[in-house]
């Protein structure tokens, strides 16, 4: 069977019996492979900006009398690359904190409407001069969600940042944020009218460092870790994550979280 790994254990018992056990090791082998791939990817992601910083620092050290405009350009690039490393390191630390806490049930009463409003304000700031509007629809009398306020804030911030970074290109694009409440679930959705994600890529976008359009992700300050963080936080909250997308139409990310009883 492709992709599966087995261990065969044969033991001779007394009285002429032989015990044969076939154990499926696929999960531990693939977990180990994921860990190795993750370390390799993280090292690669950090090495790329670091090489630029070292190269530019050497240029400065070799020729301290560079013209002012060139110095300014070198400085701006070094700052940009250092910030990229900082974002990657912060996201990696978030991921490892979430993983460390995964067996600890989060128990704050999270005012989800406030979290959403703050995330929209953050996204408006991020949007800058881009021509896109936010449509926010939050159900009244929303019950709180039992969870971790900072982590749920991060979920909303990541989803809205993606909607802005990928969906705020076209003229008068709209980003719709909705929060509804039905049968003990609070449902949050973020819908954009950006380029969408092709069907082949969709199942992989929550993997660490997986990017559909690497250049676009980098240009807009992405780390490739945003949706991986979202997925882990939603899992920790025993919630559900669904991403629906159509090329050329847009993307809708929906999260369901159990409402606090
Ligand atoms: P990144 O920092 O690269 O945005 P994410 O983990 O947030 O990393 O997303 C992974 C990839 O999924 C992105 O690089 C992008 O290709 C794709 N993606 C995520 N959100 C959207 C969206 N709203 N519209 C189009 N593509 C998206």
UniProtKB/TrEMBL annotation:
Organism of this sequence: Sphingomonas lutea
Enzyme Commission numbers on file: 2.7.13.3
Broad class of enzyme this protein falls into: transferase
Keyword annotations of the record: ATP-binding, Kinase, Membrane, Nucleotide-binding, Phosphoprotein, Transferase, Two-component regulatory system
Protein name in the entry: histidine kinase
Domain Histidine kinase: from-to ranges: 41-261
Highest taxon of source: Bacteria
Whole-protein coverage range: 96 to 356 of 356
Keyword Transferase among UniProt keywords: yes
């Amino acid at each position: 069977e492709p992709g599966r790994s087995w261990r065969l254990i044969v033991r001779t018992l007394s009285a002429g019996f032989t015990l044969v056990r076939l154990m499926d090791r696929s999960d531990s082998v693939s977990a180990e492979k994921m860990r190795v791939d993750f370390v390799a990817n993280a090292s690669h992601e950090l090495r790329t900006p670091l090489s630029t910083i070292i190269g530019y620092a050497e240029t400065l050290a070799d020729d301290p009398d560079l013209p002012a405009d060139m110095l300014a350009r070198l400085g701006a690039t070094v700052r940009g690359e250092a910030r990229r490393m900082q974002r990657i390191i912060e996201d990696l630390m978030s991921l490892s904190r979430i993983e460390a806490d995964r067996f600890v049930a989060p128990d704050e009463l999270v005012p989800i409407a406030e979290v959403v409003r703050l995330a929209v304000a953050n996204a408006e700031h991020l949007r800058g001069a881009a021509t896109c509007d936010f449509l926010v629809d939050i159900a009244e009398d929303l019950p709180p969600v039992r969870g971790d306020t900072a982590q749920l804030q991060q979920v909303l911030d990541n989803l809205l940042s993606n909607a802005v970074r990928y969906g705020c290109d076209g003229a008068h694009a709209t980003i719709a944020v909705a929060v509804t409440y039905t049968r003990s679930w609070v449902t949050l959705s973020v819908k954009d009218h950006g380029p969408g994600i092709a069907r082949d890529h969709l199942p992989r976008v929550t993997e660490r460092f997986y990017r559909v359009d690497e250049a676009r992700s980098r240009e807009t300050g992405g780390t490739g870790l945003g949706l991986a963080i979202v997925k882990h936080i939603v899992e920790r909250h025993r919630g559900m994550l669904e991403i629906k997308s159509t090329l050329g139409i847009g993307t809708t990310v929906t999260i369901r979280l159990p409402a606090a009883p």
